[in-house]
Amino acid sequence: MKLEGASVAITGGASGLGLATARRLVKSGASVTLLDLSPTGAEAAAELGERARFVEADVTDAESFAAGLDVAEEAGGLRGVVHCAGAGRRMRVLEKDGTPGSLEDFEHVIRLNVTGSFNALRLGAERIARRDEVDGERGAIVLTASIAAYDGQIGQINYAAAKAAIVGMTLTAARDLSSRAIRVCTIAPGTIDTPLLGRLKPEVKAGLEASIPSPRRLGRPEEYAELAAHLLENGYVNGETIRLDGALRMAPR
Ligand SMILES: NC(=O)c1ccc[n+]([C@@H]2O[C@H](COP(=O)([O-])OP(=O)(O)OC[C@H]3O[C@@H](n4cnc5c(N)ncnc54)[C@H](O)[C@@H]3O)[C@@H](O)[C@H]2O)c1
Hints:
Elements: E1 7-11, H1 16-27, E2 31-36, H2 41-48, E3 52-56, H3 62-74, E4 78-83, H4 103-128, E5 139-144, H5 148-151, H6 157-176, E6 182-189, H7 195-198, H8 202-210, H9 221-233, E7 241-244
Parallel strand pairs: 1-2, 1-4, 2-3, 4-5, 5-6, 6-7
Helix pairs in contact: 1-9, 3-4, 4-6
This protein binds nicotinamide-adenine-dinucleotide (NAD).
């Protein structure tokens, strides 16, 4: 897919990986619509210039999310979605005091990450399917999992389950949407330096860096953005999840 002139919706676009992707896509001549719960997305869009706009929307909500995607439709016909909205909430199967992990915390993270990704797929694809095919495709969707999908740590039972579900959806979604010539790929980031990790204590952050084989540092949001742009552009990558982690394999804690 050609980024120049394309309309791309970016969920979680107010911060971190989503905002870095928006910057990268605007540089390539795309028009971006940032969708986020956080109203700070308005300032972010203003800084990106006239090819960017912001809509306050919840990715788990059918109506507000559809309305946000319609704004991206009006901005030139949606061709791509980069879905970055998501988060975890620490919990264990049994908490330290022996009480069973909270069903509410489990379901909250599943709803945000899994239902949110499905909503991005179904409502994004509905709009992209209206486009004409160019070079054999109508558009592409990039989802965001995590390496916790493969090596979830203690305290990540809900997050690991949710991100593994996104990895599991990737090939099926690509197959479902093949008749519409819409590709689906997923990025599974390791430890990328965004506000999400900013909440970690400095010693925990330093420990994480020391455990990354090469390069021995946190990933940069721009490195995620570069891969997301490539996955939108490269018409032959489909149904695949790519780890972006400096060869990190997470230890149990
Ligand atoms: N940063 C990392 O190291 C890392 C590693 C693995 C996976 N990830 C995943 O990457 C994605 C982006 O993470 P980030 O580091 O950029 O985090 P971030 O906290 O900087 O940004 C996430 C954005 O999503 C928005 N958001 C949350 N819930 C939403 C909802 N229901 N509807 C709309 N917007 C919502 C937040 O307001 C925020 O702006 C997440 O799915 C996260 O799980 C991040």
